[in-house]
Amino acid sequence: MPELTLTPDLWLRRFHPQGRVHPGSRSAGSGPAGSGRRTLICFPHAGGSATTYFPLSAELAAHLDVVAVQYPGRQDRRSEDPVDDLAHLADQLADVLAAGLDPPYAFFGHSMGAILAFEAARRLTADGLDGPEMLFASGRRAPSCVRDEHVHRRDDAGILRELRSLSGTDTRVLDDPDIVAMVLPPMRADYRAIETYRYSPGPDLACPIAALVGTEDPRVTLDEARRWGDHTSGRFELRRFPGGHFYLTGSEPTVAAMVLGSLDALA
C-alpha cells in the first residue's frame, strides 16, 4: 500500500473557523487554525466525507473549533486511492493529528468513524501524547463486538442496496450513474476496512466515552452500544436519539447540545 501524504491541510477541514458561519468549502478553512478553543475532531462514516459534518459544525461553531477529517479517495481527494485497511488509516490519522492539532480536543466519530476515532486515540496515547478529552462514539457497536458482515464482497448493485436500506444517501445521488461510479470505490474500500477490522486487546482509553445510538438503528443494539463502557477506565454514558443508523441527519441541534453538555461536565 502506498504511503499517504501526512500534511494536515490535506486531511482536515474547517467549515466555520473562529465561529464564522458561511458557505462551506475547502477555502472556508482547512488545517490548523490556532484558535485556542477546545477542538472537536469529527470522523465520517463509511463512504462519507468531511462535508457530512457541515451542519453539526454550524451548530457548534460559536462554542468549539470543529474539524472534520477528509479521507483519501473522495471529493477533493478523489484522485487518491482510498484506504481499505482501518489499522493503516488509524496510523496515518494519528500522525496527522499529532502534527496538526494542539490539545485540548475531543473526538466524534459516526459508524466506521467511531472505530477509527477510537483507534487513533489509542495510538496517540500509546505514543505518550495527549489523546482526546472525550470520545463520542455514534452509530457503532463497541470495538470488541463482532458481526460477520461482507458488504464489501457484494457486486455494485449489492452495495447500492445496502446504502438504500440505511437511508444515509440521497436516492437522487444513487440514481446518477456518474456519481455512483465516483463514490463506489471509496465506499467499497471503507466497507472492507470496517468489516475486516478486529479489535486487538490492550490498553484502551482513560477519557470518558459517550455512545450515541438511534432508537431504530439496525446496525447497533443497546447491549452492543453499552459495551463501549468496557473500553475506558473513565466515565461512560449512553444516549439514544430518535431515528435509524443515520439519526444524526436532522438531529444536529439536539446532538450539539448533548456534546456541549458532556464537554462542560469535564470541568
Q: How would you describe this structure to a colleague?
A:
The chain is of the alpha/beta class and 267 residues long. The chain has one domain: Alpha/Beta hydrolase fold, catalytic domain (Rossmann fold), CATH 3.40.50. It contains 9 helices and 7 strands. It has helices spanning 8-11, 54-60, 86-100, 112-126, 156-166, 171-174, 177-195, 222-226, 252-265; strands spanning 12-13, 39-43, 65-69, 105-110, 135-138, 209-214, 236-241. It has a 7-stranded mixed β-sheet with strand order 1-3-2-4-5-6-7, sandwiched between helices. Helix 4 links the parallel strand 4 (105-110) and strand 5 (135-138). Helix 3 (86-100) packs across helix 4. The model is unreliable at 20-35 (pLDDT under 50).
Give a quick rundown of the structure.
By secondary structure, the protein is of the alpha/beta class. The chain contains 9 helices and 7 strands, in the order αββαβαβαβαααβαβα.
- Structural class label: alpha/beta
Secondary structure tally, helices: 9
Determine the fraction of residues in helical runs and give it as a percent range: 25-40%
What spatial form do the alpha-carbon principal axes imply?
Answer: globular
CATH superfamily: Alpha/Beta hydrolase fold, catalytic domain
Radius of gyration: 17 Å
Spatial strand arrangement across the major sheet? 1-3-2-4-5-6-7
Residue windows where pLDDT falls under 50 for at least 5 positions = 20-35
What is the N-to-C order of secondary-structure elements (H for helix, E for strand)?
Answer: HEEHEHEHEHHHEHEH
Number of strands: 7
Q: In whole angstroms, how far apart are the ends?
A: 43 Å
Largest sheet: 7 strands, mixed
Query: What is the CATH level 1 assignment?
Result: Alpha Beta
- Please name the CATH architecture: 3-Layer(aba) Sandwich
Average predicted local confidence, pLDDT:
87
CATH topology: Rossmann fold
Work out the count of structural domains: 1
